[in-house]
Amino acid sequence: MKARFAGSWGIASRANLALALTVLATGSALAAQATPEQACTPDVYRLCPGEIPNVRAITSCLRRQKASLSEACRAVFEQ
Length: 79
Known about the structure:
Order of helices and strands: HHHH
Radius of gyration: 15 Å
Strand content: under 5%
Structural class: mainly alpha
Shape: globular
Distance between the termini: 50 Å
Largest sheet: none
Number of strands: 0
Helix content: over 70%
């Protein structure tokens, strides 16, 4: 049972790594095309998980955490 879980996790980890590398490689082009939700979702989970699902509280939290935001999410708040 342990080996089955480890094998499944390995495949998921590789897929996540490939996705992360794709996002990093596309850089600002992706940020320009992303919706605010797509750009900021990772930051919400990283910086403001206690505010989910309250959108107003999430927005306030992200504004307070502006220095820690990803480049894509920061671009959303600077528009």
